[in-house]
Amino acid sequence: MKPFIAFTSLTGRLLLGSAAALTLLACDPDNDPNPGAAPVVTNSVFVINEGNFGRSNADISLFSKASNSVINRSLFASATNATLGDVAQSMAVRDSLGYIVVNNSNKLEVVSLAKFRSKATIKDLMLPRYFVAASSDKGYVTETVSYTAANGRVSVIDLKANRVVKTIEVGSQPERLAVVGSRLYVTNSGGNTVTVINTNTDVVEGTITVGDGPNSVVADRDGAVWVLSGGQVAYNPDFSIDYSRTTKGSLARIVPGQLMATTREVPSNLSAPGRLTINGSLDQLYYTYLGGVYTLGINEATLPTTPLIKRGSFYGLGVDPQDGTIYGGLASFTAADKVIRFRNTGAAIDSFTVLAGPNGFVFY
Amino acid sequence: MVLQTLLPGRLAAQLVLLGGFGLLAGAVLPVAAQTPTNTLRSQQLPAVRVAGLRPTRFAVGSRQLVLDSVALNNYRSGTVADALGARTAIYLKNYGPGQLSSIALRGTSARHTAVLWNGFNINLPSLGEADFALLPVNGTTQVEVQPGPAGATYGNGAVGGTLRLSAAANSPADWGRGWHGTAQGDYGSFGLGAGLAKAGFSNEKVALRTSFNYRRADNDFPFYIGEGRSRVQQRQKNAAFRQASFTQDATLRLGQRGELSAAVWLTDAGRQIQPGIGTNNTNAQERDQSRRLMASYRRVSTRREWTVRTAWFEDVINYRDDLSGLSESTVRTSQAQAEHTWRLAPNASVRLGGEAQHFAAQVDGYGAAPRTENRYSGFLLLRYDPRPRLQLSLNLRQAVLPGQPPPLTPTAGAEWLALAAGRHALSLKGNASRSYRAPTLNERYWRPGGNPNLLPEESFGYEAGLAYTYKTTVLTLQNELTAYRQLVDNWVQWTPGDSYWSPRNLRQVRAQGLEASSTLGWQPGAYRLTARGSYAFTSTEKTQGAAADADPVGRQLPFVPRHTVALSTDHGWRGWQLGTTLTYTGYRYTDASATDFLPGYLLLNASVGRTLAVAPAWQLLVLAQGFNLTNNTYQNYQNRALPGRNASLSLRLLWR
């Protein structure tokens, strides 16, 4: 069974918060207790192009690591002769299947990764955001439900029948989610909590208070859960940002099996950190903040104050689990957008062109 | 163009031109219908009265496309979008039948076309543009399009061009008609229904006109999407609309010199917002209401003329969907204009004037408090004809806006009748102009993102053209060719920031192109033919930009076709009529990198009708129309479905 990581990152359009999610799947704790040690080999990078809201022009671009080039800019359209839909929010992989969350089409598109053929479409979701699979049989999708809803929800998907079998109410505007052992951690970006759900019973076990606006979550090699919060932006009456009331972003660490977290704040509230991502050996964290990319080891005592990469604001952030290459997506939403690649030292390698709004990367 | 396929306007459309002008009992001079691009029209008022000088008198050297009341009579239950789409090669970006229809004149954006109604700008102050699907033709007597910049002449937003709608009695034929009336009913595909009633009276003292129209459609048309190797049929959801409008115009002649007029124009449209193909249907709907009142007084003598006008508009846009709830917007505009004209000599006139506008916006997106803004401008217009065949104009305007004012905007134009020999006439013309566009209320005040520090956009453009006319007693041929170029600076673009989008003065855009048109009128006997062809080549691209502007330079801007063609024929023989229109819209890029595009498409429509005299002074028209006859599957805007082949039937009753 191949461990895999799905990195995605969120839209800023609705200010729902953002971050990079690591979904650690396929690591059955019974027979593979230390997934971080497993070697990871990736050949392809799927770039999730969100597309323009309302224009149904989202698609996936396929980048080949062997040729260092984009093999197919519109992979879904060319493979299926259909449009993927409106606002591709994220993509995750389970076994040989890709799960593409198409936010404003209210669907989860299941594709074969070999030929990118459509295998199933799970419809009638309500503003779905992110997907994670807990096993080959079961997956979870966060859903905003509506922009005015007090609470969002998580739908439980039967991955064999490809249908929703249950919905679980969580906090406001749930974003990225991660499965660790038999627990599902859901970031509630509209508040300051993480909902913990037992993946055996699909019942909420409790909530953990973290910093304002949790938007992304990853698990490290020790099974600790890291939650990045963007902080809560307060506005003046003229809608400029009131920095005297805006809270700082923060990084929380949740000890496995406990419903509490230790939280560290970022230095400044001038920017909301987001897109928390982890490397292949599951010991180095990455996130976007103050127009750059910051990184820290899981055992470092303090948060970094200088960026690893100082290069504009990335709309999508990914780290290749095989070699640590960092992928940053720049989003203009008008032109064909660019992805820039960096070594794990922060030195730029090259760039390539995709479609509008690259918001995340899946390495496979 | 697409929009029209459902519109009853098309029904009326070919009626008159084809069926013969006798139908329009007491209507305007039929000859005018043959001259939709007439730039040299002379107005002949009763000899005792002196005509006021039209604004176009100070627009020498510009191309003018005129859809007069005869031409517009064909679109009376339709919208301005229909009329322009059928008669011109102008590109309108359209989101579906009855949905948003915005203009892109000469490669600019919809905010770069000034839309004037009786001299007042009716672009929505919040958006800075007009939705042409919300402008019914019924209350309008004339539509004039002047492509190209003319900020000095027409004020804010006259960058890509100016569209002027007039309602008041402004032609000699509007006077002394007595009573007249029209009623029409339409029935068509996808739940289309429309009706209109219009009545008027005029003698030599007073002219009154009242009109009402209503139309609706379910728009539940089938469309096809690719799925694997096959095409799957879907039915359009949430695209119904209903639309009503009421107009009342009154003009009163006060003695030989004075004229008082007033006009009311109410429009009310309730639309479901058609979701894109593959897009979540959130049951979005929008209510657009505009209430427009204006009054003017004009006093004309042989040497002087002065006019004062005042207007009050209220524009309501209330939007609702399942996800976001309700968003309300009301903007009230109060404004006044005054101008004084001196006729220094038969060949020289000077006009000096000014305007003031006050906007009061109560828009959810701007916050709870109302926003107000004042704008002013003053202008000086000169017209001088040094020789009978040579016309010159020089205009200046200075606007005062909140924040930094735009520069002084001059316009200069010249027109020379180079050849007038027998049946041939050849004119050469040219003009150059600076123009400006004030930031819209949304661009300044929208929360979050609104940027109160935006600079006005500025442009400089010029054009040159020639017009050739050949005329015999049975045949008229008019050809016109125009080349233009324009640079627009401080072009505003909304771009994503750290947490929200914001408009910025990002770039310079250069638009250049060619416009060619030809109109043939031929009437050898009982048979009458009018054939028109027009073609536009439009090249528009970013030439330089700010560091924050990621879009590449040198690429055709998205959603501006390089090539558009419109061909139409209208045939009339005794009571029969036959009409065809064929339009071609070239490919449009969908991204600023000019990589992905929507393919070009052809649309073929046709109509056949019969006119019957049912009683003295009463006539009945029966008209059948077919749209998209080749049953093309095509998209005007990205992933917005449009109907395939469809049809309508209409009955029209005319009295006098």
UniProtKB/TrEMBL annotation, chain A:
InterPro entries, per the entry: DUF5074, Host-pathogen_enzymatic-act, WD40/YVTN_repeat-like_dom_sf, YVTN_b-propeller_repeat
Keyword field: Signal
Keyword Methyltransferase tagged: no
Endpoints of the signal sequence: 1-26
Annotated protein name in UniProt: YncE family protein
